[in-house]
Amino acid sequence: MGLIRTYLSDFISLIFPQLCAACHASLVLGEDTICTDCLYNLPYTNFHQQPDNIVAQQFWGKLPVEAAYALYLFNKGGKVQQMMHHFKYDGMHRIGNIMGKIAGSQLAENETFKTVDYIIPVPLHKKRLKERGYNQSACFAEGLAEKLNAKVELDNLIRTVATKTQTHKSRFARFENMQEVFAIANPGRLANKHILLVDDIVTTGSTLEACGIELLKVPGLKLSIATIAYAV
């Protein structure tokens, strides 16, 4: 029976080949969404081993973060960009969970990230969430939570305003665009907790900064940040 299933799977793959989300090569039996070659050779940052990494530096003097991290470097035209496009716009939410587990395994080696209580994804406005069908940052958060033994908090940080796209805006314009966009629904639940705020890609950090400003209004809250990619 097992051999028949293998033949059937191979036959279906010939007609409807499953392609790697990063390089578009055909996946072989046992590969899931991303091929083995890409899983090993995508541009990992190893920022979990570098406390003063470039993501952390973006928040110096702006947010008192415990630690900051990105899993990959994002270059235009590169494999990470291809993967993130499929993740964000083509309904391939499985990518977020896979990336979350990889990132979570790295962060579980870091003493600061080990103390995270709740993981909070940057929220989408309810209108955007309905259009897309899922929050890509929440998919990433779920994978992280599995490896960090932390809980995902989905409905506490909320987006009250549907902002326009941040593409092509300057850093200052992006920050202005995010003013008074977020709110905390239940601050008491987050008091004296270590929160890991997560997003898919960090560029200028304006969205994460705006979220962080609201979160840090909660008494005793400690804040760390993690993203799938850092835009070079």
UniProtKB/TrEMBL annotation:
CDD domains: PRTases_typeI. It comes from the Bacteria. Residues 138-228 form the Phosphoribosyltransferase domain. Keywords: Signal. InterPro entries: ComF/GntX_DNA_util-trans (IPR051910), PRTase-like (IPR029057), PRTase_dom (IPR000836). The keyword Signal applies. Residues 1-21 form the signal peptide. Belongs to the ComF/GntX family. This is ComF family protein. It comes from Mucilaginibacter psychrotolerans. The lineage of its organism: Bacteria, Pseudomonadati, Bacteroidota, Sphingobacteriia, Sphingobacteriales.
